[in-house]
Amino acid sequence: MRSYKEGIACQYLKETKYDRESIIRRDDLGPIPRPPVYKDYLDSPKITLPNPAFEKIESLWDILNQRRSRRRYTSEPISMTTLATLLWAAQGITLSAPNYQFRTAPSAGALYPVETYLGIHHVSDLKHGIYHFNVLDFALEEITLGNFSEHLTLAALDQAMVRRGAVVFIWTAIVLRSMWKYRNRCIRYIFMDAGHIAQNLQVAATAMGLGCCPMGAFYDEEVNQIIRVDGEEETAIYLAAVGNL
Ligand SMILES: Cc1cc2nc3c(=O)[nH]c(=O)nc-3n(C[C@H](O)[C@H](O)[C@H](O)COP(=O)(O)O)c2cc1C
After folding, report:
1. Residue 68 beta carbon below 6 angstroms from any ligand 1 atom
2. Distance from the alpha carbon of residue 12 to the mean position of ligand 1, in angstroms
3. What is the pLDDT of residues 200-238, one digit of tens each?
4. Are 73 and 165 in contact, with CB atoms under 8 Å apart?
């Protein structure tokens, strides 16, 4: 039997450590093409999001104190403005510089490898379906209309909060966005980026009196199929359900 130390987790950490030698040593990955920073679905119907509502909230200290992963929601829908506010909090653009647009959440090298898709279950004025968040245009792009809540729940190991959620955030990684620069070490950074985004979402949801729970447990390829990504160049890495309490 192999020791856990020979398993892929320990090997990955070992092989992607920086030390004073490895940081300058050339790896053998060959040239890696740099993909665009933004993804859009030019042929899909686009829904412009309303402006986020920056309503007065409790102090940050109270919100951090209240933050919990909440899994039980009512079936009351959330509004488009609430959804827009959550998307802005998670990944909205806050500063435009000549070559970069910076966002609410930090990203290694400002490369922003994480894309957001939404499973919409109960959002006022928005049809059920799977949508992509176009960060640059602050808009949603339709991927597939229809009620995917059951399908998505089963893909998330039958976790009932997916079915109950008004919306399910599905985060993917476009791996080459980070890999062209950070090579194999990119996987560390991609998951750190996703963690920052999810934390922003959960803190904002808490501030707005909503429930939110992140999820790492799901059948990857089933989720990839639902959102129609290939699972190689782009693959689902993290989910979060949000709903009214
Ligand atoms: C990376 C990650 C993956 C998680 N995956 C799940 C999950 O699949 N299902 C679930 O019910 N909770 C999941 N959680 C929520 C944790 O169970 C929760 O954060 C933990 O119990 C601590 O509780 P708190 O968030 O309320 O402080 C996940 C949290 C993280 C950070």
Report:
1. yes
2. 23
3. 999 999 999 999 999 999 999 999 999 999 999 999 999
4. yes
Domain containing 95 — which CATH number?
3.40.109.10
Give the total number of structural domains in the chain.
1
The DSSP secondary structure of 68-112, one letter per residue, reads -------SPPBPHHHHHHHHHHHH-EEEE-SS-EEESS--GGG--
**What are the tens digits of pLDDT across the range 123-174?**
999 999 999 999 999 999 999 999 999 999 999 999 999 999 999 999 999 9
Q: Is the CB of 165 under 6 A from ligand 1?
A: no
- Which residue, among 73, 82, 165, 69, has the nearest Cα to 156 in the 3D structure? 165
User: Could you list the residue range(s) of the whole structural domain that residue 112 is in?
Assistant: 4-244
Q: Is residue 59 classed as helix, strand or coil in its secondary structure?
A: coil
**HSE value, Cβ hemisphere, 13 Å, CA-based, for 83:** 31
